Amino acid sequence: MGVIASSSESDVHRLEIRLMGTDPRARTLLHDARDLGIMSIDAIDVIDVFFIHGILENSERVALEHILVDSLLQQSSWKATATTCHHFVETALYAGVTDAASQQLLRIASRLGISVDAVTTAKRIEIVGALEPGELDLLVRKLLANPVIEYWSVDSLIIPVIPVESRAHVVPVEVVPIALDATDEQLLKLNGERGLALDIEELRAVRDHYRGLGARDIELESIAQTWSEHCAHKTFRASITDDSGVVLRSLLSQLRDTTDTIDAPFVVSSFVGNAGIVSFVDGVTIALKCETHNHPSAVEPFGGANTGVGGVIRDVLGASHMPIACTNILCFGPPDTSGSDLPDGVFHPRRIRAGVVAGIADYGNKIGLPTIAGAVLYDNGYTANPLVFAGCIGIAHGEYVATTPQPGDRIVVLGGRTGRDGLRGATFSSMTMDASTGDVAGASVQIGDPITEKLLIDVLGRGQHLFRAITDCGAGGLSSAIGEMAEGVGASVELSGLPLKYPGLSPWEIWLSEAQERMVVAVQDIEPLKEACRIYGVECTDVGEFTGDGRLVVRNNGDIIFDLDTDFLHNGRPQRHMTAMMPAPRRTEMNEAEFVSVFGDIDIVSSLQQLLRHPNIASKEAIIHRYDYEIRGATLVRPLVGALLDGHADGVVVAEPLDVHGIAIGIGVNPWFGEQDPERMALSVVDEAIRNVVAVGADPDKIALLDNFSWGDPRRETTLGHLVAAVNGCCTAAIAFSAPFVSGKDSLNNEYFGSDGERHSVPPTLVITAVAHVPDANATVTPDLKRTSNVLLVLGHTSCEFGASHLAKIMNLSDIGVVPGFDTSAPARYRTLHGAIRAGLIQSCHDVSEGGIGVAVAEMAIGGRLGVDMSCCEKASEAQWLFSESNGRFIVEVKKEDAPKVLSLFAGESCLLGIVADNDFLLFSNGRDVSVTELSDMWKTQQ
Amino acid sequence: MKSSPIAAVLCAPGTNRDSDVSFALTQAGATPISYLMSDLISQPSRIDDADIIVIAGGFSYADALGAGRLFAVELENSIGDRIRAAITERRPVIGICNGFQTLVRMGILPEDNRLVALGHNDGGVFDCRWIEMEPVSKKCIWTRNLTENIHCPIAHGEGRFTAGSSTVSALLKNDQVALRYVNGNPNGSVGDIAGICDPTGVVLGLMPHPENHVVARQHPKFHRGESGGLGLALFQEGVRYVNN
């Protein structure tokens, strides 16, 4: 990197800080090393190192040491300690990667009047143990350092590098010749050289637009960003021909049409802008959004997940709503994956999980938003391609009016500084990964700065009147943000005033930088905004004006570096034409004899135990406790509920402490169904998300949905066929429930070419988020059993539906049976259930999903630490009844005296399951029993 | 006697439970006013009107150099003398979570020259869970009239109260251990100490968040019919002390 130089010429003070006792990071590293199969390490220690560049008096060193070191907890040394360990590795973040510690030390030194030129930090990892040849290298590559954000030194002291002033390396804008008659071959060559990730029709459109005049490189980059799959959703907007020759409406149009058909009165804004907006209560609107951050999380799990959370919060801010809660759905490889099975360039699933969870916790906890709902899934298909879905909901008071910039408005950039961060993030996330992606895509991943974004929330929350229009800087950076705002209006931008993280950025880098924590606003009068920013310590820069001439012109120090027609940028992309091969899944249910022949003689107790231990079903408590789900004091139905607060809620409810209204959030996801029958998967997960919110007390007639698709490469016709089928399922289910989609996002190309030459794709993963109105927060319900002698009823119909079920999974059976079908009587049942909840008839309620009634009743028993006597409810095929995953079902707990009434409310679709018992046992009708304590221990075993 | 004492809620960049504690103070009968660090630097005297001083929880300055360390330096340099004067005048001060860490780093808790610290949780990671704590100090004006244990969440990564055994004995002897974890110690704090007061009894620092249990519905077992143990009581004590 041209702007980086060693600082060896100036004074560098090295301060080592060692924690007394075991550093928790060391404990984790030791554990993770063993996951990699490295057993020869006896001990690891982690030491923080600060490099303070500048000439310091001794008293100044003492003052800084006093801030950095707590003598009761830490030991420090201004010398590199001679150690007795076998090896040591020192790692440091590249310049420009967010490092709050060095920024803050530099800031406080200046406040204290201590002259410091720069601060860099490093980590020193000391290893005791006789490592085998090659193990140290493996340890460094897979565990201790990440080349995406760090450099390192093995068995020698690291030499810190700091950015220095140098304009010499600024690359001028280059004009790329594109001949009017350029051939496809020439265009594809250009595509590869520039990393544009465009297809041939798009390249031809670019060629034709420039009419042989040549394109500035920055314009090409900007077009590539705007037209990337990530930003333009080309597949969802494509015209698709299915294998019977029928040309379908685009997938996005199908989803939009569905929302239009439902015509729900509570939808304020759908499928436009940064987030969907609904209003359940007069004068209050809710913004909801869910995003993916898959590729970044694969190469830098902490930073990828961290910035994923930051990004979706900015989406809500960009819709002029104040964020109030975060959600996340995480998909990893199995935690017990053997280190030797890992493809090249892939981290161990446990390391990815640890980094992702820490990244989500770090952002949410620090920004001060509760992380309240989610799911964690494990499958081999996610080992190389972990998925991270991050969601956010926000609230605003008053009537929502969408606003757009007007000619004459100033363009103002707020928040973080611009660096080389995330360059080409949008095109990166649209490309298939390979073993070297972690190296070449280095700059595409960043680490977030939640405090800066918190300050943005503070300013924007108190200053809604200060701006006319707003959008966030996400993929594509200013290019996207200003580009979108300027659509139809035009803008004139001057980049030279923008504060940079370090000198030496080329204009195209500034224009395309994906530096986090920035928002762009259109303002009539900048002064009041400046004053608000000053108070909160937020940087605020006027970078130009919305013009009204429809052109987007960007200058650097007055020189035009970019000049494009916004109409071409946003509407010039030719529609993609694609072909889909539709799936033809089996739809005939097994009969009793087939069930017996496939599954054999099922031992109910041991199957239940295995199911509860399965990582998909097992307790997620250890992860949930890492997130602050209590902040704001409004998490009424928490993710953790029950007698010992370790049971899992179906959905969560947010309700301000004194408010009677609430908002329920539920998640539906089942990729295993998707592999076998994508249409039924979509129907099932929409149903599941809705069940989850209805179960806690939401009104089934006031539910809005978000769709998030993470899929393989849609240019493969079967993969696209799966996607088309899933969208069909989404639309059918949404109409059946009158629950409109208001926003969605697709992340395609989640594939990976391993060095084994094989192609890895994620299972078709559709995440549905349901956000619903809770009319009476005091009448919400949790799934933990409440009281002895209460009666448990099953609502809904149980069929022999075991396709891709978890019973099949634990028995290693694949491609058997049918994926559960949609229950058309479900919507009416949910309304009846809601009435019963409002009437106080339901003591607890749990939706039935993975593992069927058996797992659901065990979870209720664990939640309440009470037993259930099911001896009264004899079934012809108990195993089938207990473990089928049919849709549309709940288990409810009712008082004995209310049971007849509830049974009659659900006449023909309810039956007795058992009686809550004041003991520790689940007693089945065949006389077998199992201890709830024992089940709970299995369910809670850490994996 | 004042009807609604003014509570100054001090916020650094990254403080994030200021709204929660303001809600609790309002419910307890106080009038909370938030002051940003930038306000305190430019107009330090604004703090002099406060009847109660509250240092709210969060991640001040991202806790980038350790919890509360920079907030402590900034407060000391801007209004350190004014906070100490308030204590002398027996105006109540409370630091919650990050605020507690800050008061310890300022040397206000437990008192100058006595070494205590808040280290990384035993579990090594940030932990959010409900705890129960018992008010024990009869010296501390915030806890001395409390009759019931408080149930409320913790949400911290660096909350392990750490002190040498002689310091702990001295704190106990001096009645400065204000709150103790009961039915489980979430972070490995020595002596199950959840909160301490200064020798005057007007300054309380605690790791848990009583401001998140202000109304009965916030009880995590509300759906099981359980209630009680409101954190509100603590704030009511502070208000009552000012009003008397």
Write a structural description.
Chain A is α+β, with helices and mostly antiparallel strands and 943 residues long. Chain A is 33% helix and 25% strand. Chain A has 32 helices and 44 strands. In chain A, the strands form 10 sheets. Chain A has a 7-stranded mixed sheet with strand order 21-23-19-24-22-25-26. In chain A, strands 39-41-38-42-40-43-44 form a 7-stranded mixed sheet. In chain A, strands 4-2-3-6-5-7 form a 6-stranded antiparallel sheet, with helices on one face. In chain A, a hairpin with a 7-residue loop joins strand 31 (652-654) and strand 32. Chain A is globular. Chain B is of the alpha/beta class. Chain B has 6 helices and 11 strands. Chain B has helices spanning 18-27, 37-42, 69-88, 98-106, 165-173, 232-243, and strands at residues 6-11, 31-36, 52-55, 93-96, 116-119, 127-135, 150-156, 160-163, 177-182, 193-197, 203-206. In chain B, the strands form 2 sheets. A 9-stranded mixed sheet of chain B has the order 2-1-3-4-11-10-9-6-7, with helices on both faces. Chain B has a two-stranded antiparallel ribbon with strand order 5-8. Classes of the chains: A alpha+beta (943), B alpha/beta (244). The interface between A and B is large, with 62 and 55 residues.
How much of the sequence lies in strands of chain A comes to: 15-25%
Order of helices and strands of chain B: EHEHEHEHEEEEHEEEH
| Structural class category of chain B | alpha/beta
Please describe the biggest sheet of chain A, giving its number of strands, its sense, and whether it closes into a barrel: 7 strands, mixed
Instruction: Note the gap between the termini of chain B.
Output: 6 Å
DSSP helix fraction of chain B:
25-40%
Strand content of chain B: 15-25%
Number of helices of chain B: 6
Instruction: Calculate the terminal CA-CA distance of chain A, rounded to whole Å.
Output: 41 Å
Total helical elements of chain A = 32
Query: Low-confidence spans of chain A: pLDDT under 50, at least 5 residues?
Result: 1-9, 433-442
Question: Could you tell me the radius of gyration of chain A in angstroms?
Answer: 29 Å
